[in-house]
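Researcher: Structure prediction, please.
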Amino acid sequence: MDEKYYFTYIVASRSLTLYIGMTGGLRRRVFEHKRKLHEGFSATYNCNRLVWFERFVDPSNAIAREKQLKGWTRAKKIALIARTNPTWVDLSETWFTKEELTWGPSA
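Model: Predicted structure follows.
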């Protein structure tokens, strides 16, 4: 049986506004952020660039990590990202075609 993974992740806007989330489908969730398929903070502030993530086998660990990160100061979150992604490149930039991101209606 294939092992299921869960992810705690951070997406950022170009102006470095941060959104922290947890999901069982990272590729799908990042796509939703990029297409603004859900109303809310990340859509309002254009948080659509995946800048950090961690993988977990146990969903409770991913949830706990999400809660931990949300309690951190902005400076500590930025330091976490900078350790593994110092240039803040979109880690998902090769995951989708331009057509996937622009075709059809978005919310």
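Model: The CA atoms of residues 6 and 42 lie 20 Å apart.
Researcher: Thanks, that helps.
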